Amino acid sequence: MTSATRDKTALSKGGLLTTALLASTMLTAVSAHAQASQAPQGAVALEEVVVTAQKRSENLQDVPVSIQALGQAKLDQLHVASFTDYVKYLPSISFQTTSPGFSNVYFRGVASGGDGNHSGSLPSVGVYLDEQPVTTIQGALDIHIYDIARVEALSGPQGTLYGASSQAGTLRIITNKPSTAGFSAGYDLEANTIAHGDQGYVAEGFVNQPVNDKVAVRLVGWAQHQGGYIDNVAGSRTYPTSGITVTNADRVKKDYNDVDLYGGRAAVKIEAGDNWVITPQVMGQIEKVGGVFAEDRSLGALKVAHYYPENSKDKWWQAAMTVEGKISNLDVVYAGSYLDRDVDTRQDYTDYSFFYDTLAGYGAYWTDDAGNPVDPSQYIIGHDAYMKASHELRVSTPQENRFRVVGGLFYQRQTHGIHQNYRIDDLGDSLSVPGHPGTIWLTEQKRIDRDSAAFGEVAFDITDKLTVTGGIRFFKADNSLKGFYGYGAGYSPDKYDDDGVFVRDGTGEAACNGRGPEIKGSPCTNLDKRVKEKGDSKKFNLTYKIDPDKLVYVTYSEGFRPGGINRRGTLPPYQSDFLKNYEFGWKTTWADNRFRWNGAVFHETWDDFQFSIVGANGLTEIKNAVSAEINGAETDFSFAVMHGLTLNGAASYIDAKLKGTYCGKVDAATGKPITDCPVDLDNYPERAPDGQQLPVTPKFKANLNARYEFDLGGYDAFVQGGIVGQTGAWADLRTYAREVLGKQAGYITTDLSAGLGRDSWTVSAYVVNLNDSRASLTRSTECVESVCGAEVYSVPLRPRTVGVKFGQKF
Length: 810
Hints:
Blueprint: H1 14-22, E1 36-38, E2 44-46, E3 50-51, E4 58-59, E5 67-71, H2 72-77, H3 83-87, E6 93-99, E7 102-107, E8 125-129, E9 132-133, E10 135-136, E11 139-140, E12 148-155, E13 169-175, E14 184-194, E15 199-210, E16 215-226, E17 231-232, E18 236-238, E19 245-247, E20 259-272, E21 276-290, E22 303-304, E23 311-327, E24 330-348, H4 350-360, E25 379-396, E26 403-423, E27 439-461, E28 466-486, E29 495-496, E30 502-503, E31 527-547, E32 550-561, E33 577-590, E34 595-607, E35 610-614, E36 620-624, E37 627-642, E38 645-659, E39 700-712, E40 715-726, E41 729-730, H5 735-741, E42 743-744, E43 747-758, E44 761-768, E45 776-780, H6 785-788, E46 793-796, E47 801-809
Parallel strand pairs: 8-13, 17-22
Antiparallel strand pairs: 1-2, 3-4, 5-12, 6-7, 8-9, 10-11, 12-13, 14-15, 14-47, 15-16, 16-20, 18-19, 20-21, 21-23, 23-24, 24-25, 25-26, 26-27, 27-28, 28-31, 29-30, 31-32, 32-33, 33-34, 34-37, 35-36, 37-38, 38-39, 39-40, 40-43, 41-42, 43-44, 44-47, 45-46
């Protein structure tokens, strides 16, 4: 099994972008772009790229699936260290992010915006570390990219072989495995500086040590400091109701969004007899983030004015084991893992406090026990505890057979302990949630998601050139949410409907109705709901091999995402949503393996999709919207122009639109969207008209990269340049929210690098975001747009970063 190595980086917007897209389209593969290499007769050629997207090792060009793969050499060349570093080279992927460790990823425009709340929808994209899923309920792990064999991006519903939230696509991070072939080791040291910000460093290393001819150990470690570039500047606010003025003089700090990250990986390879290989692995990481990564542009570039400490600590470890072997002529694979993740956060919430007081006199409610007004400024202390266990057993017949079968069983159970403590200093005990002095609102819940599946896929070579493949995945999903949310009894005022009848809003201590605490830390229980679903997803593929270097295929595949429980218990559960994909693609190699061109065009329908909004009391509400229709195309190429010079590019065009009018209403009995919207739709805040563009994903995204390797006085030298660009995108689906947040403009950014080496060492220098583009990646407000709309935050691209790197391998 070889690792993928191919270049891929940057195109631009405008002419280059459009030209690259219309050249054809796709996402499929080569993005792991191959380097030029010298063939035996001196001819220039591209290297083979091997992937395991279909649960077996195959040449990328033989896989009738839309895949991109960034191999280890390309990841190193592009200075990829994190999710946001590599995703920009994958045109069919878009994402929202608030800071490192808090990103949501989407494929092919299948994005409604707003996903990722701790009690929200499951992700629509599955992320795997080797064979094991690592997608937690609130998003994927922020895995440091070092000693990684490749990153594979599989676009579209995978239908059969992948579950675990792979509704719209799958990301796979494949680590380098221990090898019994011999000792190897290496290290890399890097120093960098960020424009308008601070300095950083990276130290990484690995050792591969055979114990004997049957056992080998691989140890990997890394430490990184990323300098900050957002300044927390001086500010003050006077609450209109109480007249209390607050300042942030003790919080003013330059470059306060720094990051410290360190972790490691240990793996063992055990060859048990002639036919079995056992690979246990343990990996862990701690990421400490200070400040926020957003700017308030009303204060100036790269500035905010916040009043309380803001930070996060994301700590996780995973124990995994893969067993591969043979029983008779059947290949057998078991993959299991246990993941433990704890995330501690502190968040300033004074925007919510100030604007609610300005709008509704909110500050009058908050007093000490003597009835004196207190500073109503809020902040949030959060803790998210995730645990995930997964198991998959897979059996397949020999790949060389004309009739091939793969089948298996899958099970996973993931839990999420949710603690969100909304605090006001000096708040009276009578207004606090019992057992939590100073807490006005508490979320103390436990969520459990259980998934099980049985899957099978068969392939038959009708002729030497024509192959048909079909598969189905039967699944069961089980989602539950239990615990407490809301105010204490001292602030759960009696409420009456329009007829004067007493009602309760289903939140807080008053809604517990005498039911005691069942989740540790909660005063009582006011939410206990569970939903179960079962169904199947299918896949059909027809592949025609034109010649050994060219194939075309058509695919129909389905994706599914389970429904779940709204943490506002008075709302009905949200229902599952389905994605159907119709795709035509091609994989081609030309000019004696000097030029590769792959692509796909697709049509997708997304029925009754899950849509998250921030509702009353700042609670996320998930409702099923209407349907959406997505049309698009993806393409990428690699070209060995001459010895030492390669060009690589990729692009996508995605047109994702609402199909039907959305007005935020669902049937209370079924949870299905109501399409009979009010006549005055223009004045309805949850409105989104038929044909509205889906958020997050730009219509055009592309990149182009050139790398030239040459001899310089006996040294191996290189120069490399790339350009990445995309058109604009909206941050929200709803028209009103778009008017508040504005549109994220399109952008172009360029990267340059150069270096040389000899024997075991290399030294290089690079510039990322050379033009210092300040493009917006995400836009949001701290609370409901109609209240906090005056305070819009934008997460910018990291400013221009210049670095030097030294590496050595033994």
